[in-house]
Write a structure and sequence with these properties.
By secondary structure, this protein is an alpha+beta fold. It has 13 helices and 19 strands. Helix 11 crosses helix 12.
Length: about 475
Amino acid sequence: MATDVIMPQMGESIAEGTITRWIKNVGDTVSRDEPLFEISTDKVDAEIPSPAAGTLTEILVSPGQTVAVNTVVARIGEAGEGKGAPARKEAATPAAPPPKAEPAPKPAEPAAAPPAAPAAARSEAPRAKEPAPAPPPRPAAAPASPPPAAAPAASAAASFEERIRARSSPLVRKIAQENAVAIAEVEGTGIAGRVTKNDILSFIDNRKSAPRLEAGPARPAVVPPGAPVPRGDRDEIVPMSVMRRKIAERMVESRRTSAHVATVFSIDYTAVEKLRRQNKEAFLEANGVKLTYMPFIFQALTAALKKFPELNASIDGEEIVYHRDIHLGMAVALDWGLIVPVIKNADEKSILGLARAANDLADRARSKKLKPEEVSGGTFTVTNPGVYGSLFGTPIIVQPQVAILGVGAIEKRPVVVEDAGGNDALAVRTTGYLALSFDHRLIDGAVADQFMAEIKKTLEAGSFSLA
Protein backbone atom coordinates (compact mmCIF):
# COMPACT_ATOMS: atom_id res chain seq x y z
CA MET A 1 0.00 0.00 0.00
CA ALA A 2 1.33 3.45 -0.94
CA THR A 3 2.22 5.95 1.79
CA ASP A 4 1.24 9.58 1.24
CA VAL A 5 3.95 12.18 1.85
CA ILE A 6 2.38 15.44 3.04
CA MET A 7 3.52 19.05 3.37
CA PRO A 8 4.23 19.33 7.12
CA GLN A 9 3.11 22.24 9.28
CA MET A 10 6.40 23.82 10.35
CA GLY A 11 5.05 25.93 13.20
CA GLU A 12 1.67 27.01 14.58
CA SER A 13 1.21 30.05 12.32
CA ILE A 14 2.45 28.37 9.14
CA ALA A 15 -0.29 27.72 6.57
CA GLU A 16 1.81 26.76 3.55
CA GLY A 17 5.25 25.71 2.37
CA THR A 18 7.28 25.89 -0.82
CA ILE A 19 9.17 22.87 -2.11
CA THR A 20 12.62 24.10 -3.09
CA ARG A 21 14.28 20.80 -4.07
CA TRP A 22 13.58 17.10 -4.31
CA ILE A 23 16.53 15.19 -2.85
CA LYS A 24 15.19 11.89 -4.20
CA ASN A 25 13.81 11.14 -7.66
CA VAL A 26 10.93 8.93 -8.78
CA GLY A 27 12.10 5.32 -8.67
CA ASP A 28 14.69 5.90 -5.93
CA THR A 29 14.72 3.66 -2.90
CA VAL A 30 14.31 5.58 0.36
CA SER A 31 14.70 4.63 4.01
CA ARG A 32 12.45 5.84 6.79
CA ASP A 33 13.63 9.26 8.12
CA GLU A 34 16.02 9.71 5.16
CA PRO A 35 15.91 13.29 3.76
CA LEU A 36 13.37 13.31 0.95
CA PHE A 37 12.86 16.96 -0.06
CA GLU A 38 13.59 20.52 1.08
CA ILE A 39 10.99 23.14 1.89
CA SER A 40 10.98 26.85 2.64
CA THR A 41 8.40 28.59 4.84
CA ASP A 42 8.07 31.96 6.56
CA LYS A 43 9.97 30.50 9.51
CA VAL A 44 12.53 27.96 8.35
CA ASP A 45 14.26 26.18 5.50
CA ALA A 46 14.40 22.48 6.31
CA GLU A 47 14.96 19.00 4.95
CA ILE A 48 11.88 16.80 5.34
CA PRO A 49 12.47 13.12 6.13
CA SER A 50 10.65 10.23 4.48
CA PRO A 51 7.69 8.94 6.55
CA ALA A 52 8.28 5.34 5.38
CA ALA A 53 10.75 3.03 3.70
CA GLY A 54 10.17 1.95 0.12
CA THR A 55 10.33 3.37 -3.39
CA LEU A 56 9.39 6.94 -4.35
CA THR A 57 6.71 6.17 -6.93
CA GLU A 58 5.20 9.60 -7.55
CA ILE A 59 6.08 13.29 -7.13
CA LEU A 60 2.96 15.47 -7.18
CA VAL A 61 4.40 18.92 -6.45
CA SER A 62 7.28 20.36 -8.47
CA PRO A 63 10.14 22.50 -7.06
CA GLY A 64 9.08 26.13 -6.73
CA GLN A 65 5.43 25.31 -6.05
CA THR A 66 3.76 26.52 -2.84
CA VAL A 67 1.03 24.37 -1.33
CA ALA A 68 -1.04 24.33 1.85
CA VAL A 69 0.04 22.24 4.81
CA ASN A 70 -1.22 18.62 4.77
CA THR A 71 -1.25 18.60 0.95
CA VAL A 72 -0.04 15.28 -0.47
CA VAL A 73 3.19 16.07 -2.32
CA ALA A 74 4.42 12.56 -3.14
CA ARG A 75 3.76 8.86 -2.63
CA ILE A 76 6.02 6.05 -1.49
CA GLY A 77 5.27 2.47 -2.53
CA GLU A 78 6.68 -0.89 -1.54
CA ALA A 79 10.38 -1.50 -2.11
CA GLY A 80 11.04 -2.37 -5.74
CA GLU A 81 7.75 -0.91 -7.00
CA GLY A 82 7.78 0.77 -10.44
CA LYS A 83 8.33 4.44 -11.14
CA GLY A 84 4.83 5.66 -10.56
CA ALA A 85 3.22 4.09 -13.65
CA PRO A 86 0.13 2.87 -11.73
CA ALA A 87 -0.37 6.33 -10.27
CA ARG A 88 -0.18 7.97 -13.68
CA LYS A 89 -2.67 5.51 -15.18
CA GLU A 90 -5.02 6.20 -12.27
CA ALA A 91 -4.82 9.93 -12.92
CA ALA A 92 -5.39 9.41 -16.66
CA THR A 93 -8.44 7.15 -16.28
CA PRO A 94 -10.97 9.89 -15.37
CA ALA A 95 -9.82 11.99 -18.33
CA ALA A 96 -10.39 9.14 -20.84
CA PRO A 97 -14.25 9.15 -20.99
CA PRO A 98 -14.69 12.70 -22.37
CA PRO A 99 -13.07 12.01 -25.79
CA LYS A 100 -15.16 8.84 -26.23
CA ALA A 101 -18.32 10.63 -25.14
CA GLU A 102 -18.00 13.51 -27.63
CA PRO A 103 -19.65 11.65 -30.58
CA ALA A 104 -22.57 10.68 -28.29
CA PRO A 105 -25.64 12.97 -27.92
CA LYS A 106 -24.55 16.15 -26.16
CA PRO A 107 -27.46 16.46 -23.64
CA ALA A 108 -26.59 13.15 -21.98
CA GLU A 109 -22.90 13.98 -21.56
CA PRO A 110 -23.01 16.49 -18.64
CA ALA A 111 -25.32 14.26 -16.61
CA ALA A 112 -23.11 11.20 -16.98
CA ALA A 113 -19.75 12.84 -16.25
CA PRO A 114 -20.10 13.88 -12.58
CA PRO A 115 -20.80 10.46 -11.03
CA ALA A 116 -17.97 8.81 -13.02
CA ALA A 117 -15.20 11.29 -12.18
CA PRO A 118 -13.61 11.89 -8.77
CA ALA A 119 -13.48 15.39 -7.22
CA ALA A 120 -10.06 16.17 -8.63
CA ALA A 121 -11.11 15.28 -12.18
CA ARG A 122 -14.43 17.18 -12.06
CA SER A 123 -12.67 20.52 -11.91
CA GLU A 124 -10.79 19.72 -15.09
CA ALA A 125 -13.83 18.39 -17.01
CA PRO A 126 -15.49 21.77 -17.67
CA ARG A 127 -12.38 23.03 -19.44
CA ALA A 128 -12.37 20.08 -21.84
CA LYS A 129 -16.12 20.34 -22.44
CA GLU A 130 -16.51 24.09 -22.82
CA PRO A 131 -16.03 23.97 -26.63
CA ALA A 132 -18.60 21.11 -26.98
CA PRO A 133 -21.79 23.04 -25.96
CA ALA A 134 -20.76 25.95 -28.22
CA PRO A 135 -22.45 24.73 -31.50
CA PRO A 136 -26.19 25.37 -30.99
CA PRO A 137 -27.80 23.69 -34.07
CA ARG A 138 -29.64 20.94 -32.14
CA PRO A 139 -33.36 21.63 -31.83
CA ALA A 140 -33.92 18.33 -30.01
CA ALA A 141 -31.87 19.61 -27.07
CA ALA A 142 -34.36 22.45 -26.38
CA PRO A 143 -36.58 20.54 -23.88
CA ALA A 144 -33.52 19.50 -21.88
CA SER A 145 -31.83 22.90 -22.04
CA PRO A 146 -32.52 24.14 -18.48
CA PRO A 147 -30.54 21.40 -16.66
CA PRO A 148 -27.48 21.52 -18.98
CA ALA A 149 -27.49 25.35 -18.91
CA ALA A 150 -27.10 25.34 -15.14
CA ALA A 151 -24.27 22.80 -15.22
CA PRO A 152 -21.92 24.76 -17.55
CA ALA A 153 -22.52 27.94 -15.53
CA ALA A 154 -21.67 26.19 -12.29
CA SER A 155 -18.71 24.49 -13.95
CA ALA A 156 -17.41 27.79 -15.32
CA ALA A 157 -17.72 29.37 -11.87
CA ALA A 158 -15.91 26.44 -10.28
CA SER A 159 -13.20 26.60 -12.94
CA PHE A 160 -12.74 30.34 -12.38
CA GLU A 161 -12.57 29.88 -8.61
CA GLU A 162 -10.01 27.11 -9.04
CA ARG A 163 -7.79 29.32 -11.20
CA ILE A 164 -7.95 32.08 -8.57
CA ARG A 165 -7.08 29.62 -5.79
CA ALA A 166 -4.13 28.37 -7.84
CA ARG A 167 -2.78 31.92 -7.90
CA SER A 168 -2.77 32.31 -4.10
CA SER A 169 -2.02 30.54 -0.83
CA PRO A 170 -4.42 29.78 2.04
CA LEU A 171 -2.89 32.65 4.01
CA VAL A 172 -3.39 35.11 1.14
CA ARG A 173 -6.99 33.97 0.67
CA LYS A 174 -7.64 34.45 4.39
CA ILE A 175 -6.27 38.02 4.28
CA ALA A 176 -8.35 38.72 1.16
CA GLN A 177 -11.52 37.42 2.81
CA GLU A 178 -10.95 39.45 5.99
CA ASN A 179 -10.46 42.63 3.96
CA ALA A 180 -13.16 41.99 1.35
CA VAL A 181 -10.67 41.86 -1.52
CA ALA A 182 -11.23 39.92 -4.73
CA ILE A 183 -7.93 38.17 -5.45
CA ALA A 184 -8.61 38.47 -9.19
CA GLU A 185 -8.09 42.24 -8.82
CA VAL A 186 -4.60 41.84 -7.32
CA GLU A 187 -1.60 41.71 -9.62
CA GLY A 188 0.66 38.84 -8.52
CA THR A 189 4.44 39.13 -8.53
CA GLY A 190 5.13 35.49 -7.65
CA ILE A 191 5.87 32.58 -9.94
CA ALA A 192 3.37 32.40 -12.84
CA GLY A 193 1.58 35.49 -11.52
CA ARG A 194 1.02 34.02 -8.06
CA VAL A 195 -0.40 36.51 -5.53
CA THR A 196 1.97 36.69 -2.55
CA LYS A 197 1.32 37.94 0.97
CA ASN A 198 3.20 41.14 0.15
CA ASP A 199 1.04 41.66 -2.98
CA ILE A 200 -2.23 41.45 -1.05
CA LEU A 201 -0.98 43.67 1.83
CA SER A 202 0.30 46.30 -0.61
CA PHE A 203 -3.00 46.22 -2.49
CA ILE A 204 -4.93 46.78 0.77
CA ASP A 205 -2.62 49.63 1.82
CA ASN A 206 -2.89 51.33 -1.56
CA ARG A 207 -6.66 51.02 -1.49
CA LYS A 208 -6.81 52.70 1.93
CA SER A 209 -4.51 55.54 0.93
CA ALA A 210 -5.91 56.12 -2.57
CA PRO A 211 -7.63 59.53 -2.79
CA ARG A 212 -11.25 59.69 -3.86
CA LEU A 213 -11.62 61.00 -7.39
CA GLU A 214 -14.06 63.85 -7.93
CA ALA A 215 -15.86 64.50 -11.17
CA GLY A 216 -13.98 66.91 -13.38
CA PRO A 217 -11.82 67.21 -16.46
CA ALA A 218 -9.45 64.37 -17.14
CA ARG A 219 -5.88 65.00 -16.05
CA PRO A 220 -2.76 63.64 -17.73
CA ALA A 221 -1.23 60.60 -16.06
CA VAL A 222 1.84 61.28 -13.94
CA VAL A 223 4.77 59.01 -14.73
CA PRO A 224 6.33 57.84 -11.44
CA PRO A 225 10.07 58.42 -11.04
CA GLY A 226 12.56 55.57 -10.87
CA ALA A 227 11.72 53.71 -14.05
CA PRO A 228 13.30 50.26 -14.27
CA VAL A 229 16.76 50.03 -15.80
CA PRO A 230 16.62 48.56 -19.32
CA ARG A 231 17.91 45.01 -19.56
CA GLY A 232 20.97 44.56 -21.73
CA ASP A 233 22.22 41.57 -23.71
CA ARG A 234 24.95 40.95 -21.10
CA ASP A 235 22.59 41.01 -18.10
CA GLU A 236 21.87 37.78 -16.27
CA ILE A 237 18.21 37.31 -15.24
CA VAL A 238 17.74 35.02 -12.23
CA PRO A 239 14.41 34.50 -10.42
CA MET A 240 14.34 35.30 -6.69
CA SER A 241 14.78 32.28 -4.47
CA VAL A 242 11.97 31.33 -2.12
CA MET A 243 13.97 32.50 0.91
CA ARG A 244 14.85 35.82 -0.74
CA ARG A 245 11.16 36.45 -1.47
CA LYS A 246 10.23 35.59 2.12
CA ILE A 247 12.92 37.92 3.50
CA ALA A 248 11.75 40.70 1.18
CA GLU A 249 8.14 40.31 2.29
CA ARG A 250 9.05 40.31 6.00
CA MET A 251 11.39 43.29 5.77
CA VAL A 252 8.92 45.44 3.83
CA GLU A 253 6.16 44.44 6.24
CA SER A 254 8.32 45.41 9.25
CA ARG A 255 9.22 48.82 7.82
CA ARG A 256 5.54 49.41 7.13
CA THR A 257 4.53 48.29 10.65
CA SER A 258 7.07 49.71 13.12
CA ALA A 259 8.19 53.30 13.65
CA HIS A 260 11.91 52.58 13.36
CA VAL A 261 14.38 54.72 15.33
CA ALA A 262 18.05 53.94 15.99
CA THR A 263 20.58 54.80 18.68
CA VAL A 264 24.31 53.89 18.70
CA PHE A 265 26.65 53.42 21.69
CA SER A 266 30.42 52.96 21.79
CA ILE A 267 31.50 50.10 24.06
CA ASP A 268 34.93 49.57 25.64
CA TYR A 269 35.44 45.78 25.58
CA THR A 270 38.93 45.92 27.11
CA ALA A 271 37.90 44.17 30.36
CA VAL A 272 35.98 41.49 28.44
CA GLU A 273 38.90 41.00 26.05
CA LYS A 274 41.32 40.53 28.97
CA LEU A 275 39.03 37.92 30.56
CA ARG A 276 38.51 36.18 27.22
CA ARG A 277 42.22 36.14 26.34
CA GLN A 278 43.19 34.67 29.71
CA ASN A 279 40.64 31.85 29.53
CA LYS A 280 39.93 31.05 25.88
CA GLU A 281 42.37 28.12 25.51
CA ALA A 282 41.30 26.43 28.76
CA PHE A 283 37.64 27.13 27.93
CA LEU A 284 37.96 25.48 24.51
CA GLU A 285 39.85 22.48 25.90
CA ALA A 286 37.37 21.90 28.73
CA ASN A 287 34.14 22.54 26.82
CA GLY A 288 34.87 22.08 23.13
CA VAL A 289 33.42 25.54 22.39
CA LYS A 290 35.26 28.75 21.44
CA LEU A 291 34.92 31.69 23.82
CA THR A 292 33.84 34.63 21.65
CA TYR A 293 32.46 38.06 22.54
CA MET A 294 28.86 37.08 21.80
CA PRO A 295 28.05 35.15 25.03
CA PHE A 296 29.18 38.19 27.05
CA ILE A 297 26.97 40.48 24.95
CA PHE A 298 24.05 38.06 25.29
CA GLN A 299 24.38 37.98 29.08
CA ALA A 300 24.68 41.75 29.41
CA LEU A 301 21.67 42.11 27.10
CA THR A 302 19.42 39.70 29.02
CA ALA A 303 20.27 41.44 32.31
CA ALA A 304 19.24 44.78 30.77
CA LEU A 305 16.01 43.29 29.36
CA LYS A 306 14.98 42.30 32.89
CA LYS A 307 15.37 45.92 34.01
CA PHE A 308 13.64 47.35 30.95
CA PRO A 309 10.71 45.04 30.08
CA GLU A 310 9.50 47.47 27.38
CA LEU A 311 12.26 46.10 25.17
CA ASN A 312 11.20 42.47 25.74
CA ALA A 313 7.68 43.03 24.46
CA SER A 314 5.52 42.92 21.35
CA ILE A 315 2.55 44.87 20.03
CA ASP A 316 -0.65 43.02 19.18
CA GLY A 317 -3.13 45.46 17.65
CA GLU A 318 -3.80 48.01 20.39
CA GLU A 319 -2.41 45.78 23.15
CA ILE A 320 1.14 45.50 24.50
CA VAL A 321 2.38 42.04 25.43
CA TYR A 322 5.19 42.04 28.02
CA HIS A 323 7.04 38.72 27.86
CA ARG A 324 8.24 37.25 31.14
CA ASP A 325 10.56 34.82 29.37
CA ILE A 326 13.54 36.06 27.37
CA HIS A 327 13.90 34.15 24.10
CA LEU A 328 16.86 35.58 22.23
CA GLY A 329 16.86 35.43 18.43
CA MET A 330 20.30 35.42 16.78
CA ALA A 331 20.56 36.19 13.07
CA VAL A 332 22.63 33.63 11.15
CA ALA A 333 23.90 34.45 7.67
CA LEU A 334 23.60 31.58 5.19
CA ASP A 335 24.97 31.25 1.68
CA TRP A 336 21.38 31.47 0.40
CA GLY A 337 19.87 34.01 2.81
CA LEU A 338 19.31 34.79 6.48
CA ILE A 339 17.60 32.90 9.30
CA VAL A 340 16.97 33.71 12.98
CA PRO A 341 17.09 30.70 15.34
CA VAL A 342 16.12 31.37 18.97
CA ILE A 343 17.97 30.70 22.25
CA LYS A 344 15.07 29.89 24.58
CA ASN A 345 15.24 31.23 28.16
CA ALA A 346 18.56 32.92 27.43
CA ASP A 347 18.51 34.73 30.80
CA GLU A 348 18.79 31.40 32.61
CA LYS A 349 21.97 30.33 30.84
CA SER A 350 25.60 30.81 31.87
CA ILE A 351 28.35 32.07 29.56
CA LEU A 352 29.07 28.43 28.68
CA GLY A 353 25.38 27.67 28.10
CA LEU A 354 25.00 30.68 25.82
CA ALA A 355 28.17 29.78 23.88
CA ARG A 356 26.99 26.20 23.36
CA ALA A 357 23.47 27.21 22.34
CA ALA A 358 24.72 29.82 19.86
CA ASN A 359 27.19 27.42 18.21
CA ASP A 360 24.68 24.58 18.03
CA LEU A 361 21.92 26.70 16.47
CA ALA A 362 24.29 28.31 13.94
CA ASP A 363 25.71 24.93 12.86
CA ARG A 364 22.28 23.36 12.42
CA ALA A 365 20.96 26.44 10.60
CA ARG A 366 23.70 26.05 7.98
CA SER A 367 22.97 22.33 7.58
CA LYS A 368 19.16 22.86 7.44
CA LYS A 369 18.58 20.78 10.57
CA LEU A 370 16.61 23.34 12.59
CA LYS A 371 13.19 22.44 13.98
CA PRO A 372 10.18 24.77 13.59
CA GLU A 373 10.08 25.63 17.30
CA GLU A 374 13.73 26.71 17.16
CA VAL A 375 12.99 29.57 14.74
CA SER A 376 9.87 30.94 16.40
CA GLY A 377 8.89 32.58 19.66
CA GLY A 378 11.76 35.07 19.86
CA THR A 379 11.18 38.13 22.05
CA PHE A 380 14.34 40.10 21.12
CA THR A 381 16.90 39.67 18.34
CA VAL A 382 20.66 40.23 17.99
CA THR A 383 22.47 40.49 14.65
CA ASN A 384 26.25 40.60 14.22
CA PRO A 385 27.33 42.32 10.99
CA GLY A 386 30.58 43.25 12.76
CA VAL A 387 31.97 39.82 11.98
CA TYR A 388 32.40 41.11 8.40
CA GLY A 389 34.04 44.36 9.53
CA SER A 390 30.99 46.65 9.65
CA LEU A 391 31.32 49.44 12.24
CA PHE A 392 27.57 49.47 12.83
CA GLY A 393 24.25 49.32 11.02
CA THR A 394 20.59 50.04 11.73
CA PRO A 395 18.91 46.63 11.43
CA ILE A 396 15.21 46.12 10.69
CA ILE A 397 13.06 44.87 13.58
CA VAL A 398 11.83 41.27 13.48
CA GLN A 399 8.04 41.42 13.80
CA PRO A 400 6.22 41.39 16.18
CA GLN A 401 9.20 42.30 18.39
CA VAL A 402 9.90 45.94 19.23
CA ALA A 403 13.70 46.11 19.10
CA ILE A 404 16.84 44.55 17.61
CA LEU A 405 20.51 44.98 18.58
CA GLY A 406 23.26 45.20 15.97
CA VAL A 407 26.84 44.32 16.98
CA GLY A 408 29.60 46.18 15.15
CA ALA A 409 33.22 45.16 14.58
CA ILE A 410 35.26 44.82 17.79
CA GLU A 411 38.85 45.97 17.31
CA LYS A 412 41.67 47.97 18.87
CA ARG A 413 41.33 51.75 18.50
CA PRO A 414 42.99 54.84 19.98
CA VAL A 415 40.85 56.28 22.77
CA VAL A 416 41.19 59.34 25.01
CA VAL A 417 41.43 58.23 28.65
CA GLU A 418 41.91 60.05 31.93
CA ASP A 419 44.67 58.98 34.32
CA ALA A 420 44.54 59.00 38.12
CA GLY A 421 45.68 62.61 38.18
CA GLY A 422 42.86 63.77 35.92
CA ASN A 423 45.09 64.21 32.87
CA ASP A 424 43.96 63.19 29.41
CA ALA A 425 46.02 60.72 27.40
CA LEU A 426 45.70 58.50 24.35
CA ALA A 427 45.43 54.76 24.96
CA VAL A 428 44.81 51.69 22.86
CA ARG A 429 41.50 50.05 23.78
CA THR A 430 39.40 47.21 22.38
CA THR A 431 36.17 48.92 21.35
CA GLY A 432 33.10 48.47 19.18
CA TYR A 433 29.68 49.96 18.51
CA LEU A 434 26.29 48.59 19.50
CA ALA A 435 23.32 49.90 17.50
CA LEU A 436 19.74 49.53 18.70
CA SER A 437 16.77 49.82 16.33
CA PHE A 438 13.57 50.25 18.34
CA ASP A 439 9.86 50.75 17.70
CA HIS A 440 8.93 54.29 18.74
CA ARG A 441 5.28 53.27 19.02
CA LEU A 442 6.18 51.68 22.36
CA ILE A 443 9.73 52.71 23.29
CA ASP A 444 10.72 56.31 23.89
CA GLY A 445 14.24 57.51 23.12
CA ALA A 446 15.05 58.03 26.80
CA VAL A 447 14.14 54.42 27.65
CA ALA A 448 16.14 53.09 24.69
CA ASP A 449 19.24 55.04 25.75
CA GLN A 450 18.90 53.99 29.40
CA PHE A 451 18.68 50.39 28.23
CA MET A 452 21.82 50.77 26.12
CA ALA A 453 23.65 52.50 28.96
CA GLU A 454 22.89 49.48 31.16
CA ILE A 455 24.42 47.10 28.60
CA LYS A 456 27.46 49.37 28.26
CA LYS A 457 28.00 49.46 32.03
CA THR A 458 27.85 45.66 32.34
CA LEU A 459 30.23 45.01 29.44
CA GLU A 460 32.76 47.62 30.47
CA ALA A 461 32.84 46.33 34.05
CA GLY A 462 33.78 42.87 32.74
CA SER A 463 32.48 41.09 35.85
CA PHE A 464 31.45 37.78 34.28
CA SER A 465 31.66 34.27 35.69
CA LEU A 466 32.90 31.52 33.38
CA ALA A 467 31.97 28.72 35.79
